[in-house]
Amino acid sequence: MRIVKTVVAFGFLLTLFVLLNNSLGSIPPLGKFLNPFAGFWQNGAGDDSFDEVLDVKGLRQGVQVVWDERQVPHVFAENTYDAYFAQGFLTARHRLWQMEFQTHVAAGRVSEIIGSKALEFDKRQRRRGLLMGAEVAINTMKEDSESQLILQAYANGVNTWIEMLTPAMLPLEYKLLDYEPEVWSTLKTALLLKLMAWDLTGRNTEMDMSIIRSALGEAFVEEFYPDDTPRTDPIIPAAKPWRFDPLIPRDSSYNFEPQFVKELRKGEPDKNNGSNNWAVSGKRTASGFPILANDPHLGLKLPSIWYEIQLNTPDMNVYGVSLPGAPGVIVGFNDSIAWGLTNAGSDVFDWFEIEFRDENHTEYWYQDEWVKADIRVEEILIKGEKAYLDTFPVTRFGTTVHFGEQKGENGNPVGLAMRWSAHDPSNEMGAIRDINLATNVEEFLGALERFDSPGQNFAFIARDGDIGIRHNGKYPLRGQDQGKFVRAGRDTTGEWRKWIPMDQLPVITNPWRGYVSSANQNPVGKNYPYYMGWEYDDYERGSRINDRLKQMQRVDFYDMQQLQMDNFNKQAKRILPFLIKQIEESYLSGEELVVLEDLKEWNYMSDPGEKAAWVYKQWWLHLEEAIWSDELNLYGEIREIPTRSVTEQLLLKNRKLVYYDDIQTGVKEDRKAIIHIAFERTVADLTEAHGPYGEAWELGRARGTNINHLLSVKGLGRTGLFTGGGSGIVNASKKDHGPSWRMIVELGDSIRAQAIYPGGQSGNPGSVFYDNAVNGWARGEYYDVHFLTSPEVSTESKLKLTHLRNYQ
Amino acid sequence: MISILATLILVFLLQLVLYSWWWIIIIPLMLGFFEKDSMFLASVGNGLGVFLLWFGMSLFQWNNEGEIIVGRVAEVMGASSGFVLALATGLIGFIVAALAGYSGFSLRRTLIKEYQIS
């Protein structure tokens, strides 16, 4: 009997051990997680303070780190190796989990951490070739000894930090997900750069456009999906002459109907634009020195996307934001140059339908013969399960991501391959290094020539007074509309064979008007000889920025702040009075009339406390749906509707249009009716969502902004931020997207900069510095940046010094 | 009292150096085994020792710059406050250690009967 009791007791004990030592669904292993000696209890704000001296294995000489009041490290190193080693070490100290997890996301290795529920995601990532592209990139970077040195120094710094970690010091998320960091490699840095490229260039509408063209015809596409967005004020003034002999592309678009593969869209980045940059010449500023402003917009997350840092060596002094996991500064300034980025939006990603010989998918039809594909086998490790092997062919037209369900026209199986510029050899790391070192515009533009992907608009100012902007990147030479639709990958006609020469890319320096700007709009006017794509952002932001810069005199930092936070809704100003006129007021209820009155009195500023801003936005979305989505959805789940500016133009100019009718209703609506009905629906929907017309309808409450944790764990993000702005507004803040970094820099006798980003330097949710800048960011505040010239710190200063001592 | 203290001090020292949570099984199991007379002491005594240690240590960490993390994790875990979280931590420690202590005690009793050890 006693033995039975003992066995039962041990049975219970063993069960309890297993339960507490392992994750159960999303519940972390409670024994480990709650352990007050190594679990989450150890992730407090203790790591917010620093040692005065820290012995660090692997440095060549000592490094001085000055910490400012926001925990920005100012690194003073004697040599290049130590500077990047320290950057890796310090970034890992603050952001290890984030940087490592994102390499798992990029490489399609999430199943290793959370099990088979991520298998489909991992397969997609592998087939999209992020890992393949990173491998190609790392081989290219290795050919350049300086790039290799920097990457390796950074990796060594990260690994030294990992070695110093005790179980108690592991970042919270490792404890939540129950795994440990692995050794950092240079490949991981390349993976992060590919992930950024994917986020900025991975959206593709060719499948939608092909279906729209085959269902509604060429004329429909030409009229409603034009290559030139109406009213655009291009980045490079349209009048600029281009004095070079352009290359002639082989051909342009042609008719081909691909098989519809809906899955192509899964996991694609959203259509979200909002980045702005501009540079103002000293002729127009109060100080007489040039000023640069930049706010790159991205999906907002915690820990923050960026890590702020200053790197100082005898040959370099650079300040700005870095990508956690990559050496160098991506957006910022040095002693001579300041630069800022917006996404270029030119087309660097095409789909090709490939015809395979048989179901083995090892050979495909190209130039009238069967050609062998390279076969890539990806081993996907899965937590707690057997590894999964995914095999797919890589063709001249890129990696085959999907296979069609039906046979092609010749009875052969077909697949869709993606040709993406980020698969090609390039060395962005070398470019970033050279940008950080540049001492004048010539060197800066030279450095950009190596920055192939992702394509970016680089606005810049130089201390000697130059300003300029360049639409930068490696872009395939295309005929008109080539890349607007899916093509057949059967021969050389649609193949990427040549590139727009770097010295023929759109660029302008020191224009007479005294400023340059970009806001993701079309980079050029009609006289630029190359076709680069058609999906640029609408005219509103770019045009508003230029309107404001044109009016401003004696520009100072305050003007730049006001412009970055500008909530003027240019589209509303143009079309809202017209929309309001179409309303038949006698049909409206009392509440609807109150809402309409507020719209009539609205000054078009989409401020957070503005109810009309939110009503207008919703009204517009209802209108777009009533005009376009009803028809387009007949042909599958088309998500690509004409742009705001096209719809706006139609409404203002065309009284009659067959598409005004909402085919889901029994009656036939005309323009006036559809506008009126959309308004009534808006008020009804908003009443249902927010209750009676009142405070809850304010833009900052009804929409606001959420900054979720990377894992979307409730409690680790910041939600319900009271923000204004929106699409087509210079302050393009949205629900979960917005300015990831706001920076203003003046390069004068002294260098002055202000900046802020929605988060904080620490990745530890238990730190004060995890989200310390979020509230100020939402209110439009800025910090003064310390651009230090030496590590000397006075005793009364808020700055703190850590000496990283070389320890063998 | 002494046995409670023995559990507390031994587990504290081992966890301070070696971190792993399962010391709250190993130590009570051993102490339970060597507890000759009282099943109550072997189980509840060990349980209380670990409860005091884990609850106390949680409160200490909470108080030691842990306010932010404890607030956030309480929200993640659906706990109403940091105190509830600390109490839950202590209680889990109690249950595990008490069961381990009882198992050790029971094992010894079984061995005494089967192999006549004393």
List segments of chain B where confidence is low: pLDDT < 50 over at least 5 consecutive residues.
none
Tell me the Rg of chain B in angstroms.
Answer: 16 Å
Widest β-sheet, arrangement of strands of chain A: 1-30-2-3-8-9-10-11-19-20-22
Query: Approximately how much beta-strand content do the residues of chain B carry?
Result: under 5%
Percent of residues in helices of chain B comes to over 70%
Main beta sheet of chain B, described?
none
Share of helix of chain A, binned: 25-40%
Structural class of chain A: alpha+beta
Principal-axis shape of chain B equals elongated
The portion of residues forming beta strands of chain A comes to 15-25%
What is the end-to-end distance of chain B?
A: 24 Å
Taken together, the total number of domains of chain B comes to: 1
Average residue pLDDT of chain A? 95
What class, by secondary structure content of chain B?
mainly alpha
Total E-strand runs of chain B: 0
Separation of termini of chain A? Answer: 62 Å
What does this structure look like?
The complex is a heterodimer of chains A (808) and B (118). Chain A has 808 residues and is of the alpha+beta class. Helices cover 33% and strands 20% of the residues of chain A. Chain A has 22 helices and 30 strands. Chain A has an 11-stranded mixed beta sheet with strand order 1-30-2-3-8-9-10-11-19-20-22, covered by helices on one side. A 6-stranded antiparallel beta sheet of chain A has the order 23-4-5-27-28-29, covered by helices on one side. A 6-stranded mixed beta sheet of chain A has the order 15-16-17-18-12-21. In chain A, helix 3 (80-107) crosses helix 9, helix 12 (428-437) packs antiparallel against helix 13 (441-448) and helix 18 (611-632) packs across helix 20. The model of chain A has no long low-confidence stretch (mean pLDDT 95). Chain B has 118 residues and is mostly helical. The interface between A and B is large, with 44 and 41 residues.
